[in-house]
Specification:
The complex is a heterodimer of chains A (about 300) and B (about 260). Chain A is an alpha+beta fold. Helix content of chain A is about 40%, strand content about 20%. In chain A, the strands form 4 sheets. A 4-stranded antiparallel β-sheet of chain A has the order 9-10-8-11, covered by helices on one side. A 3-stranded parallel β-sheet of chain A has the order 3-4-5, sandwiched between helices. In chain A, helix 3 runs parallel beside helix 5 and helix 8 crosses helix 10. The radius of gyration of chain A is 26 Å and the shape is elongated. Chain A starts with 7 loop residues before the first helix and ends with a helix. The relative contact order of chain A is 0.13. Chain B has one domain. In chain B, about 75% of the residues lie in helices and about 0% in strands. The chains are: A alpha+beta (about 300), B mainly alpha (about 260). Chains A and B meet through helix 2 and helix 3 of A and helix 1 and helix 5 of B. Chain B: Keywords: Membrane, Transmembrane, Transmembrane helix.
Chain lengths: ~300, ~260
């Protein structure tokens, strides 16, 4: 994941053997991308950001050429038919792909990428330019492929929600360097942690809660503008925003501690999870809206 | 080896299907050579028989022109190999090919073979056309040798085009290259006229020109009607030319063919 110009496509190009790294070494599927690029290519599938098919050929002809390029034996046809059924394209095999919708073309590209049972599937911003419903459809397909075929997928994106929805591990790159990596949860916790917001029906001395393990900070909120002389019953209430590493881990001990205070009766609890967007912003120094706007302009 | 042949056959069939599914290409391939034969071939229709025999060593200029015209066509066909590669670069299809375990030289060879096959499409059409103008078609051995020489010329010229434009993604470049290659090679050859009246410098070029090899070799077959009395050295020169150009092309493709 990274903003435009961060180096996402360059990484894909190098890992798929399309470009040679100027320095350093990369191993894909056990092979060095510089010295054994053909071996790497035997073991990978690739889907680009734009649709790349031969529009003058039929669906099956496009698949046939892909099978030829991977020098597959005759079993490719059965695999192709299975994949066509799986992706609900089986009635289109004799139609020229030039007449297909973008969604159908993307499905065909997925079939072609999976035809030779790759160990790793590279997807370079696969949903860029798709409308919201097509994007969601492709997400479902990507999850299905990952589960059903057990293929590792390396996907680049600048859509935060896409990375959050699809990825087990994320590397955020900026200016060609990895600035952070880890699971979505780890990345989120690296920036803000969770916020537990608790409303109490009445005030109590909450300072002792700071001793609970895992609590980073407690802030009392909501009483700043209230005149203490004129406050109502509800104004006697207390609202705390408690910053923690992981809310689910800490909550049992926190509740247990709170229930020790008789007057401190909980009115409501709300957990706010940090999102990837805030992590992205903090790590890359770029606002996500700016990045999306730039990408949209690029598409135009 | 089997893997490379599989890849080559896949890419070659794609070239052919793309070509033969385009009505414009089919029409162009049929009409262009026929127009040459009809219009240029009729230039000497009213010339005295003695003039034709003195100058062209036959009383039918179309019989003289046939081999030259087809050889010249192969010059123009060569350009299609460049255009096909540029099309694949522009559409991104080259990237699709290059992320598969396909060698650069396999892609190069598929383009060269595709363009040459496209050139060969003209041969039967022109043969039928010239028969209407009284040209005798040689026997099967003659036809085979003639077609083989044209195929060699086409492979060699397509290779030249392709390696000269390998790095480019600009549609204009093949046209620019065509102007620098086609016209000198066409006029400084025996394709349209004999070289007897050329100035010495043009004769030198003509003597080293693969278009001349193919034109002269084919003309000897057409005029004599068989391969019995042809000079096979021309065929040998063509073979050397084509092999050299293919080898150079393979080396350049392996070194320079890449996406932008």
């Amino acid at each position: 994941m990274g903003p435009n110009g961060a180096g996402k496509t360059t990484v894909i190009k190098m890992l798929t053997g399309l470009s040679k790294p100027t320095q350093g070494r990369a191993i894909v599927a056990g092979y060095d991308v510089t010295t054994h690029s053909l071996r790497v290519k035997e073991n990978i599938g690739w889907i680009s950001s734009e649709v790349i098919l031969d529009d003058s050929l039929t669906l099956m002809e496009n698949i046939w050429i892909q099978a030829k390029l991977h020098s597959l034996n005759n079993t490719w046809k059965k695999k192709a038919i299975d994949l066509l059924k799986y992706l609900e394209l089986d009635e289109k095999d004799n139609k020229k792909v030039g007449k297909f919708s973008t969604g159908m073309k993307k499905k065909l590209e997925i079939i072609m990428a999976l035809l030779h049972d790759p160990k790793i599937l590279f997807m370079d911003e696969p949903t860029i330019g798709l409308d919201a419903s097509s994007r969601r459809l492709l997400w479902r397909l990507i999850r299905k492929i990952n589960e059903q075929y057990g293929v590792t997928i390396l996907l680049t994106t600048h859509y935060i929600e896409e990375a959050d929805a699809l990825c087990d591990d994320i590397a955020i790159i900026n200016n060609g360097k990895i600035v952070a990596s880890g699971s979505p949860q780890q990345l989120k916790s690296r920036t803000h942690g969770d916020i537990i917001e608790i409303d109490f029906v009445s005030y109590f001395d909450y300072k002792s809660l700071e001793k609970v393990n895992g609590i980073l900070e407690i802030v009392q909120v909501g009483l700043e503008n209230i005149d203490l002389e004129k406050r109502t019953q509800s104004d006697h209430a207390l609202r705390l925003r408690i910053k923690v590493g992981n809310a689910e881990t800490i909550l049992p001990e926190l509740i247990s501690k709170i229930t020790g205070f008789q007057p401190a009766i909980i009115n409501s609890i709300k957990i706010e999870k940090p999102n990837l967007e805030s992590a992205f912003l903090e790590l890359t120094g770029k606002r996500f809206e700016e990045i999306e706007e730039a990408a949209t302009n690029d598409q135009k | 080896m089997i893997k490379a042949l599989n890849q080559l056959s896949g890419l070659y069939v794609r070239e052919i299907k793309t070509t033969f599914r385009s009505p414009a290409i089919i029409v162009l391939s049929i009409v262009q050579p026929l127009l040459w034969i009809i219009f240029f071939g009729s230039s000497f229709a009213s010339a005295p028989r003695s003039f034709l025999e003195d100058f062209f060593h036959t009383d039918n200029y179309i019989a003289f022109l046939l081999a030259g015209q087809l050889s010249t066509s192969m010059l123009f066909v060569g350009m299609f190999s460049s255009l096909s590669l540029i099309q694949d670069k522009k559409s991104g299809y080259l990237r699709r090919i290059l992320v598969t375990p396909t060698s650069n030289h396999t892609i190069f060879l598929s383009k060269v073979l595709g363009a040459s096959t496209r050139g060969m499409l003209q041969v039967p059409i022109v043969f039928v056309g010239v028969m209407l103008f009284g040209v005798h078609i040689p026997d099967i051995f003659g036809i085979t040798a003639f077609v083989a020489s044209l195929f060699l010329l086409s492979l060699g010229l397509s290779s030249v085009y392709l390696f000269l434009t390998m790095k480019s993604s600009d549609w204009q470049i093949p046209t620019v290259v065509a102007n620098f290659i086609n016209l000198p090679l066409m006029f400084a050859s025996t394709a349209l006229f004999t070289s007897e009246n050329f100035p010495p410098w043009m004769q030198t070029i003509s003597n080293m020109n693969p278009v001349s090899f193919s034109s002269t070799f084919g003309r000897e077959i057409i005029i004599s009607g068989s391969i019995a009395s042809v000079n096979w050295m021309y065929f040998f020169y063509l073979f050397i030319f084509t092999t050299s150009m293919l080898l150079i092309g393979v080396l350049i493709a392996n070194k320079t063919l890449k996406i932008d």
